[in-house]
Amino acid sequence: MEKSAVLVGVQWGDEGKGKVVDALAEQFDIVARYQGGANAGHTVVVDGRKFILQLIPSGILRPGKVAVIGNGVVLDPEALLDEIKTIENAGVEVGDRLRVSNRSHLILPYHRLQEQAAEAARGAGKIGTTAKGIGPSYEDKSARRGLRCSDLEHPESFRRKCLEALAEKNLYAAAIGGEVIADPELVVEKFWCSARRILPYATDVSSYLNQEMDRGKAVLFEGAQGTLLDLDHGTYPYVTSSSAAAGGACTGTGVGPGRIGSVVGVSKAYTTRVGSGPFPTEVHGDEGGQLRERGNEYGAVTGRPRRCGWFDAPAARYSARVNHLAALVITKLDILDELDEIPVGVEYEIEGRTLHEFPASAETLGAVKVRYEVLPGWRRSTFGLRSHSELPPNARAYLHFISEQAGVEVAMVSTGPGRDQTIWIESSRWVSQFALPK
Ligand code: GDP
Ligand code: IMO
Ligand code: MG
Prior knowledge:
This protein has 13 helices and 20 strands.
């Protein structure tokens, strides 16, 4: 089997993917992002220093590893250049360890304006986006009027395409009384001047990855957001605009499905969500507040408080199926350390009937009643523990329970933000397949 794997968020994002990619990256040669954009905020703590990566795959922090941004990503050139500068200033050499797909679509200044107008127009029904221009850039990609990284190689046609797109946007904006871009030529010129600086990183990513895989190199595909934010499989319309689930790894990089060895899902030991949309196991009031404070659940990108709740087994089972998960990584177990009892949502009911499928409709998901099983807490610190046998028996029982409920083995448990605050589960087939430390 190919020694490549997709790492995907099981929930609504912020599961701790950055930390887990960093912990796994030692076993891989290349880490490739396949979707999303600077809406992602992946936190990695290395030797006590905190990095928040939005576009560059977390693998960049490991010397010698190559970081690849696939064609499925929407790229804000300014954001990428700023991120390169920030990590270089922190002493991480980027150089030719970063490659960007020449087929990736660009985020232009008008995309952010368009998003602001769309969110304002939705009023109370807003999605609560990250305001990074993600949705409008993907809209233009589907509408076949997007600009791609490779367009930067052709200054004249780039300017023409960009001005044509801008004229169209201005027509719509004027029609709805929105903000019109007054000086299109200037906007295009300014964008061009900074955007062309990403050209040295431009690569045919499909060709690069497949060649490297032919030579036996191992690739870790890093998902952003999470399965429940996936455009097709998530809680539509309260989703992001890309294929965050594992299938996106193939279309988002140009690597065929047969080359993907396995898929590992990252889930918190509880659940969080930022932005609007249904969240069946959400807890309000003091209980939710305690999870938020203990888990420091504030958005890495927008600083917004994250909504908090209990582990949602029906959602995890759904995610396991959609992604064909071979293994689960459970993060932030330590956040539950002080609780006497820990509820786990095990079933959804609607009008007294058990639901056997995760509902397609946001209205139905918003109306489900959750049946909980309550597990005893362990009331002991698990922070920083590194072996399964050191875990309190009730913590082991909790992990066993959520693994059984999800129908997927647990391969790794995270007990803190640091690289080494990690427990590898010795009996896990996935751990032995990837020759991970035991
Ligand atoms: P991502 O978007 O999936 O990469 O997750 P974020 O970085 O947005 O949010 C996860 C947060 O939890 C970050 O602040 C991490 O440093 C932190 N974190 C990750 N794993 C653990 C853990 O096991 N314990 C604790 N206490 N914090 C963790
Ligand atoms: P990482 O990779 C959590 C959410 C937004 C909003 C919805 C759509 O750090 O897990 P968008 O700006 O993408 O159009 O917003 O998706 N969202 C995330 N929530 N983690 C993320 O990324 C997210 N990226 C987008 O809050 O509800
Ligand atoms: Mg995040």
